[in-house]
Amino acid sequence: MNRPRNCEEVRPVLLEYVLEEVPAPDRTAIGLHLEICADCSQEVGRIRQTLGVVSRAAAFEEVPQRIRIVAEPASRWAAFWLHPARLAFAGGALACLAIAALALARTTISYQDGNFTVAFGAA
């Protein structure tokens, strides 16, 4: 931008102008435009006011540099059931229950000539 003459050329770079990121020749041309244009001058005032509010708000609250989130189960029981070994435990518990039920029912299991025989009650 060599010599901004109208608002359409100046408005897109007003933030950079306020932040002093515009090259010196363009900065001079924008300054000349701001002297004759009340709308662009008001826009620069609003930008400076907004930046002032943001800088004051940033001074009040310190943003943590590192944030660590640790999610823990509510209880040990819940932690146990979320563990991958829960299926192995459940399978073993069911096998023990099945053996106990068969023992209580006085069940006999036999294997003869390729056939399993299950008998419930007294032999």
What does this structure look like?
With 123 residues, the chain is mainly alpha-helical. The chain has six helices and two strands; from the N terminus they run ααααααββ. The protein has helices spanning 7-10, 14-18, 24-36, 38-60, 76-82, 86-104; strands at 108-112, 115-119. Strands 1-2 form a two-stranded antiparallel sheet. Helix 3 crosses helix 4. The longest helix has 23 residues, at 38-60. The protein is rod-shaped and about 110 Å long. The N and C termini lie far apart (105 Å). The model has no long low-confidence stretch (mean pLDDT 81).
**Per the principal axes of the C-alpha atoms, what is the gross shape?**
rod-shaped
Identify low-pLDDT runs.
none
Radius of gyration from CA coordinates: 40 Å
Measured by DSSP, the beta-strand proportion falls in 5-15%
Please count the helical segments. Answer: 6
Taking all residues together, what is the mean pLDDT?
81
Query: Main sheet, how many strands, which sense, barrel?
Result: 2 strands, antiparallel
What structural category do the secondary elements indicate? Answer: mainly alpha
Give me the side-by-side strand order of the main sheet: 1-2
Terminus-to-terminus distance:
105 Å
Strands, total number: 2
Give the helices and strands as they follow along the chain.
Answer: HHHHHHEE
Q: What is the chains' assembly state? A: single chain
Percentage of residues in helical conformation: 55-70%
Question: What's the short version?
Answer:
The protein is 58% helix and 8% strand. It has 123 residues and is mainly alpha-helical. Strand 1 and strand 2 (115-119) form a beta hairpin.
